[in-house]
Structure formats: structure tokens, C-alpha cells
Design a protein that fits this description.
Elements (H helix, E strand, L loop, with lengths): L2 E3 L8 E4 L7 E3 L5 E2 L5 E5 L1 H6 L2 E12 L6 E11 L4 E5 L5 E6 L3 E12 L3 E11 L6 E3 L2 E2 L5 E2 L5 E6 L1
Length: about 160
């Protein structure tokens, strides 16, 4: 379900996309995998085209690492599908990538924003990710407590809006 806020005094339109569930996802793969819960369909209107400069894809993902190697890499990349013109998913390119690195056990939150050129029409976005090697153990949407006990999965938070 999507909630659309009215435009503010500057004509900026905001759209929040709540996500209600996510299973723990293990990222131990050198091939890119879709990241659960990050797919969003964004409808940009003529109003956004007239008043906005950028469309923002913002994300926050709970992560957990227990590395078996001294360094863990997690690469994230934004992919886009142009629904209006029937163009299938494709990577957005080098400007829409993020690399996270850790060298010890860690539980954290990965967050970022990608600024897209404003457009008119419907496009779908999602994050894809991979680790550097097949022995690195990175889990998404997971949190633990002191005794190493796993607690419930934490869904990613995704927002898209025009500024």
C-alpha cells in the first residue's frame, strides 16, 4: 500500500512506501541477488516534472556480519524498470552503487540515498546485492542480542520522494 502526501508550499510531492514483513536474507554469493523488500513502484507526475529537480530513492537496511575472513564487502546497486515504456529491469550504473566494508563482527544499519533525474511516468526500482566472495557471511533484515540469539527480522525502510 502506498500513501501519497499532498504537495507542500514549494510543490514537492512525497510518497512513502511502507513494507510490513521481510525474512532474514543471507548474502553469501558473488552473483547479485534481489534484496527482499526493496522493490518500489514510483509514479512521477507532471507536477513533479515541473517543480522537482530529483527523485530520491532512500533506504535503510538492518545488517549482521560474522566474518570468516578479515574483511567483509557488501555491494548494493540500484536497478530500474521503466513500466510506462515496457523497458525491463537494468542496473542504473556506477553512480548508483554503494560498497560497505567491515573487518570484524558487527551488527549495523546500512542506509543511503540515490538521486535520480526527474521524469514523468511509472518506474519500478529495487536494490540488488552481493558479497565479494562465497565465504563471506552477511545477513540482511536480522538483529541479534548479546547471547547471540536471533530476534525477529527487521524489514527494510524504503522511501521515494521528489525534491
Amino acid at each position: 500500500m502506498t500513501y501519497i502526501r499532498p504537495t507542500d508550499e514549494r510543490g514537492y510531492a512525497f510518497e512513502e512506501i511502507p513494507y510490513t514483513s521481510a525474512a532474514i536474507q543471507r548474502m553469501v554469493n558473488t552473483q547479485q541477488l534481489d534484496i527482499n523488500g526493496t522493490e518500489v513502484l514510483y509514479n512521477s507526475t507532471t507536477n513533479n516534472l515541473n517543480f522537482g529537480r530529483y527523485i530520491v530513492y532512500e533506504y535503510m537496511i538492518m545488517t549482521y556480519w560474522n566474518p570468516t575472513q578479515p574483511l567483509v564487502d557488501l555491494s548494493l546497486e540500484l536497478w530500474e524498470e521503466d513500466v510506462t515504456n515496457s523497458i525491463p529491469y537494468a542496473p542504473k550504473g556506477a553512480d548508483y552503487r554503494q560498497l560497505e566494508q567491515w573487518n570484524e563482527w558487527q551488527q549495523s544499519v546500512v542506509f543511503g540515498k540515490f538521486f535520480l533525474p526527474v521524469y514523468e511516468g511509472s518506474r519500478r526500482y529495487k536494490l540488488r546485492g552481493r558479497t565479494k566472495s562465497a565465504v563471506e557471511d552477511c545477513r540482511l533484515h536480522r538483529a541479534t542480542i548479546d547471547a547471540g540469539l536471533e530476534i525477529q527480522a527487521r524489514p527494510p525502510l524504503i522511501k521515494m520522494y521528489t525534491i
